[in-house]
């Protein structure tokens, strides 16, 4: 009786070189699959942790709520949990550092990622928690129980001094240190005893019910619905924590791309493993023919091949998963940060995929070995049968002809290796083209077209209890009104100022989700974006200039209130302390920051007050720094002003592009390594299967130098074809990818040929090829010529 397990084990031991090669390849492929999967999970998990650290773990927040409103929100059916924060005051220092003091309950502390390094949250009136940055700023050690003397200003600008006992210490994050904005937490008792609670405005943070079952968009909608249910009329007081929601519930498009990348990695690995087993098994067809001759059935032949693959896989795949874990957790954790995500499901998934890949790779070789007749199996020499009846010969043989003869000997192996290499190269060129074409400055300019922007800040919209801070009331003495604009125009270096306006508005006769809206000015510069997001109707700038037609920038009015293009509506506009009714026709529905949009020219005659809410300032390059410093000094002296500049936006864009590039190049390099493994396999297998043949050639005069040259020609054929295919197909696909990116809204992408990246790719490939040839020839020559001539598997 034929023992298939014993034969399979004997074959593996006898053909050690091939077995080791197959094991190494499966090991590498599994390692790459495991490390890619684990790095992606690590990235998602660390991204979520970073998001929680900087943005918190709440879904939504509502500002300026009264004490009586807290219980209403806490008892809302759609809220799972909620926390309260109330700012008490702020301590400012000469170096622009600040310590913000606030009451924060336990839930809000958890939402805000307040992690106590030592101690507990304050309970008594004289207790306080400070972060390590605040303690250092105040000149105190990190020691619990010590007395802390602190003076600060409340929001009535009244100076208050108090001696606290330190009950807890938190750690300031990187953003707090960079902004020099540190924090302290006081007790509820202290807040109630030092503040008039009837006048206090609370910030309420909450999580919606059923997070696991809801999509990201559904969570955002619930946050807005909750705000509407409790009577919030000012959209500005509602914050949807999009950073946390997006990290928690990645966009379906992002998930789709992740699956595409994963599929490419799996496909590349399958190609390599299939090629390894195919080459390995077709060279042993003679052995299986001999087994058939002594009585082995087709089923037993298949069983032997399958068991060989499984025995090798049982060793290589678990080792590959372990190596993948080490790479992702030990090496890449330094870049992405330590993540706590469970690796067990990934490990099991990768093992299943790898075993499935090996099994699929064995199907065709198993059929090939089991179907061949005994006579054909014994006569089999590993060379593909040609369809031509006559074979082309040569009058003379040289090194080049020998190299190409070997490549033609097993065309299938050659083609599979080339496909794997070209796939890697094409992906590298395509991804490099897209990443090189991303322009950080253009990306920033798309969202921030100015050099400097000044914004009207800390105003309210529909807060009846704070009438003095309502936008229409502030506009009566607008701090960025006409006089301020004229003053800026006189500055040396200011070339142009764009005035962005907003008017507080209501819609007469409609019960909308929010009572108050804004009418915003637009011009021809905005036309492209408005057209891109157009939902209904059309856009005619000339008619918008008349002031009798508007665009709607909030699609909810279209979907929830059934307002369509062509409808006539009456707007109630707030001109300072006066109201104006104006009937307008809805020209179209689009997506924009303001609820209603009207042309610049029409704004001049709408109100008597100056309705500026932000100023976009364009400066000369030489004077940009001076103008920026002057504006920053102006903003510091006015609580109702804020500023931002293009430098900040470019730095943010650069960081985003660098992070994207790191992830993109890591994946492409991994796929490239898989392709190169296929080249190593093809060349080593070629040498192993031709050891006797090459030994005979050396016996009749082939020198070691000629052998190396022949191997170089074979390797150059692979790498040369790969580079030609990669550059031609990759360049075309790269250009198409850039065009597609532009069409999907990435207007900051401008086609740039990745010459540096391609040069690096060519150099790396050539160096790798030379190293590979050197090591193969060195290893081949370790055996004596007699042993090589006598070699037979």
From TrEMBL:
<dbReference type="Pfam" id="PF02687">
    <property type="entry name" value="FtsX"/>
</dbReference>
<feature type="domain" description="ABC3 transporter permease C-terminal">
    <location>
        <begin position="260"/>
        <end position="360"/>
    </location>
</feature>
<feature type="transmembrane region" description="Helical">
    <location>
        <begin position="415"/>
        <end position="435"/>
    </location>
</feature>
<feature type="domain" description="ABC3 transporter permease C-terminal">
    <location>
        <begin position="666"/>
        <end position="780"/>
    </location>
</feature>
<feature type="transmembrane region" description="Helical">
    <location>
        <begin position="662"/>
        <end position="688"/>
    </location>
</feature>
<feature type="transmembrane region" description="Helical">
    <location>
        <begin position="751"/>
        <end position="776"/>
    </location>
</feature>
<feature type="transmembrane region" description="Helical">
    <location>
        <begin position="20"/>
        <end position="44"/>
    </location>
</feature>
<keyword id="KW-1003">Cell membrane</keyword>
<dbReference type="InterPro" id="IPR050250">
    <property type="entry name" value="Macrolide_Exporter_MacB"/>
</dbReference>
<dbReference type="GO" id="GO:0005886">
    <property type="term" value="C:plasma membrane"/>
</dbReference>
<feature type="transmembrane region" description="Helical">
    <location>
        <begin position="715"/>
        <end position="739"/>
    </location>
</feature>
<feature type="transmembrane region" description="Helical">
    <location>
        <begin position="254"/>
        <end position="277"/>
    </location>
</feature>
<dbReference type="InterPro" id="IPR003838">
    <property type="entry name" value="ABC3_permease_C"/>
</dbReference>
<feature type="transmembrane region" description="Helical">
    <location>
        <begin position="309"/>
        <end position="332"/>
    </location>
</feature>
<keyword id="KW-1133">Transmembrane helix</keyword>
<protein>
    <submittedName>
        <fullName>ABC transporter permease</fullName>
    </submittedName>
</protein>
<keyword id="KW-0812">Transmembrane</keyword>
<feature type="transmembrane region" description="Helical">
    <location>
        <begin position="344"/>
        <end position="363"/>
    </location>
</feature>
<keyword id="KW-0472">Membrane</keyword>
<dbReference type="GO" id="GO:0022857">
    <property type="term" value="F:transmembrane transporter activity"/>
</dbReference>
<comment type="similarity">
    <text>Belongs to the ABC-4 integral membrane protein family.</text>
</comment>
């Amino acid at each position: 009786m034929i023992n298939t397990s014993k034969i399979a084990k004997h074959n593996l031991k006898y053909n050690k070189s091939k077995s080791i090669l197959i094991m190494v390849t499966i090991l590498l492929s599994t390692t790459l699959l495991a490390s890619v999967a684990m790095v992606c999970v690590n990235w998602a998990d660390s991204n979520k942790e970073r998001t929680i650290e900087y943005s918190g773990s709440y879904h939504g927040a509502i500002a300026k709520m009264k004490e009586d409103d807290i219980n209403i929100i806490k008892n809302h059916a759609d809220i799972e949990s909620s926390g309260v924060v109330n700012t008490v005051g702020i301590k400012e220092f000469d170096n622009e550092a600040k310590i913000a003091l606030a009451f924060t309950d336990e839930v809000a502390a958890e939402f805000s990622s307040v992690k106590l390094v030592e101690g507990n949250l304050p309970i008594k009136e004289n207790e306080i928690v400070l972060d390590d940055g605040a303690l250092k700023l105040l000149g105190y050690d990190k020691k619990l129980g010590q007395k802390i003397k602190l003076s600060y200003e409340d929001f009535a600008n009244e100076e208050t001094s108090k001696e606290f006992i330190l009950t807890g210490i938190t750690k300031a994050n990187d953003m707090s240190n960079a902004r020099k904005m540190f924090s302290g937490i006081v007790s509820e008792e202290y807040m109630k005893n030092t503040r008039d609670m009837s006048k206090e405005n609370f910030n309420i943070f909450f999580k919606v019910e059923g997070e696991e079952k809801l999509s990201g968009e559904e969570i955002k909608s619930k946050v807005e619905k909750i705000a509407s249910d409790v009577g919030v009329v000012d959209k500005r007081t509602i914050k949807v924590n999009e950073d946390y929601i997006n990290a928690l519930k990645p966009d379906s498009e992002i998930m789709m791309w992740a699956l595409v990348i994963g599929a490419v990695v799996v496909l590349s690995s399958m190609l390599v493993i299939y090629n390894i087993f195919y080459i390995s098994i077709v060279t042993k067809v003679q052995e299986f023919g001999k087994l058939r001759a002594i009585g082995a059935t087709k089923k037993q032949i298949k069983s032997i091949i399958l068991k060989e693959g499984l025995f090798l896989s049982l060793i290589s795949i678990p080792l590959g998963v372990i190596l993948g874990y080490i790479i992702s957790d030990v090496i890449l954790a330094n870049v992405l940060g330590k993540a706590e995500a469970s690796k067990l499901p990934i490990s099991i998934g990768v093992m299943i995929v790898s075993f499935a890949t090996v099994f699929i790779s064995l199907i065709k070789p198993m059929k090939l070995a089991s179907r061949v007749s005994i006579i054909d199996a014994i006569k089999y020499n590993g060379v593909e049968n040609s369809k031509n009846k006559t074979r082309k010969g040569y009058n003379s043989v040289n090194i080049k002809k020998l190299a190409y003869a070997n490549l033609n000997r097993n065309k299938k192996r050659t083609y599979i290796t080339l496909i794997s290499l070209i796939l890697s190269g094409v992906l590298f060129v395509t991804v490099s083209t897209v990443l090189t074409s991303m322009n950080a400055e253009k990306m920033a300019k798309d969202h921030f077209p100015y050099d400097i922007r000044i914004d009207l800040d800390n105003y309210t919209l529909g807060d009846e209890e704070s009438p003095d801070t309502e936008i229409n009331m502030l506009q009566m003495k607008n701090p960025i009104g006409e006089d301020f604009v004229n003053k800026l125009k006189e500055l040396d270096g200011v070339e142009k100022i764009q005035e962005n306006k907003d008017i507080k508005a209501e819609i007469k006769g409609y019960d909308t989700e929010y009572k108050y809206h804004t009418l915003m000015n637009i011009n021809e510069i905005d036309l492209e974006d408005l057209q891109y997001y157009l939902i209904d109707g059309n856009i005619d700038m000339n008619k918008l200039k008349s002031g009798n037609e508007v665009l709607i920038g909030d699609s909810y009015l279209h979907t929830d209130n059934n307002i369509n293009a062509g409808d006539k509506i009456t707007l109630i506009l707030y001109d300072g302390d006066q109201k104006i009714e104006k009937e307008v026709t809805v020209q179209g529905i689009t997506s924009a920051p303001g609820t209603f949009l009207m042309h610049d020219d029409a704004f001049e005659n709408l109100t008597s007050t100056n309705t500026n809410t932000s100023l976009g300032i364009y400066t000369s390059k030489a004077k940009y720094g001076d103008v920026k410093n002057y504006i920053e000094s102006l903003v510091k002296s006015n609580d109702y002003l804020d500023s931002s500049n293009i430098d900040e936006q470019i730095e943010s864009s650069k960081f985003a592009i660098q992070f994207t590039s790191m992830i993109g190049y890591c994946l492409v390099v991994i796929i490239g390594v898989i392709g190169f493994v296929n080249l190593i396999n093809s060349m080593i297998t070629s040498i192993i299967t031709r050891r006797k043949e090459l030994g005979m050639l050396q016996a009749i005069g082939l020198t070691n130098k000629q052998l190396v040259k022949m191997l170089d020609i074979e390797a150059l054929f692979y790498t040369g074809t790969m580079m030609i295919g990669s550059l031609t197909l990759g360049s075309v696909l790269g250009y198409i990818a850039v065009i597609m990116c532009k069409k999907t809204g990435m207007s900051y992408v401008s086609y740039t040929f990745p010459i540096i990246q391609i040069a690096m790719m060519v150099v790396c490939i050539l160096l790798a090829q030379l190293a590979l040839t050197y090591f193969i020839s060195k290893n081949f020559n370790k055996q004596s010529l007699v042993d090589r001539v006598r070699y037979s598997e």
